[in-house]
Structures are given as structure tokens and as C-alpha cells.
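re: ur question from earlier - yeah i can do the single chain one, its not a big deal. heres the input i used so u can compare w yours
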Amino acid sequence: MAAMAETVPAVGPLMGAVPAVFIAYSQNTSSAFSVALFYLVFYQIDGNILMPRIMGSKIDLHPVVLILSLLIGAKLYGILGMLFAVPVAAVYRVLYKELWHSSDEPRPTETEQ
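and the output i got, formated as C-alpha cells:
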């Protein structure tokens, strides 16, 4: 369930953590606290450090641009906007490079083709 919830940005980790905390709470309160603390630390590291760097390196965008695109997507369209924010930012990056900076790169000559 946590893996399925992870597909929804921002609220997905919370949706995945709640059942685990409730199951741990059925055992005892210290287990529930430990599970909640684990999820808090794990998702803070994952969401704020790992994911922006990994996604940024794969789609050639700076992590700050990724975070800003997620915030803008959330403000404009909520959860659905966050889900599509990174792909839209990547498309804008490609269009920007192709339409405005395509003449910056040297074109191959006939002998190089």
C-alpha cells in the first residue's frame, strides 16, 4: 500500500505511513512511535534530498527547479498538478533548448554525418 501511495506526490507518503503506524499501535505505543519516527526521517531524506537530485540528474534539471515546479503545480492544480509538474518542467526544458538554443550548437558537416 505504501508503494502505491508513493505515486501521489506530497500526500502519498503520509497515506502510506498511516496504516503502518496504526498496525504498530495495535502492538504497543512505543512501536507506533518508532514507526512514525522512521517514516518521518525516511521521507524527509527521500523527499528533500534524494528525489530532487535523482530526478534532476535524470532529466537534466536543477533540484531547485524541480521543487519549484512541484510547488507551482500544487498551487495551481493540487495533487494532480504535482503529479504532472516534473514531466511538464522537463518538456519546457527540451522546448527551450530546441527552440531558442538550437543555433548555439555547431551543426555537423557532411563529413561528420
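The two ends are 51 Å apart (CA to CA). not sure if urs matches, ping me
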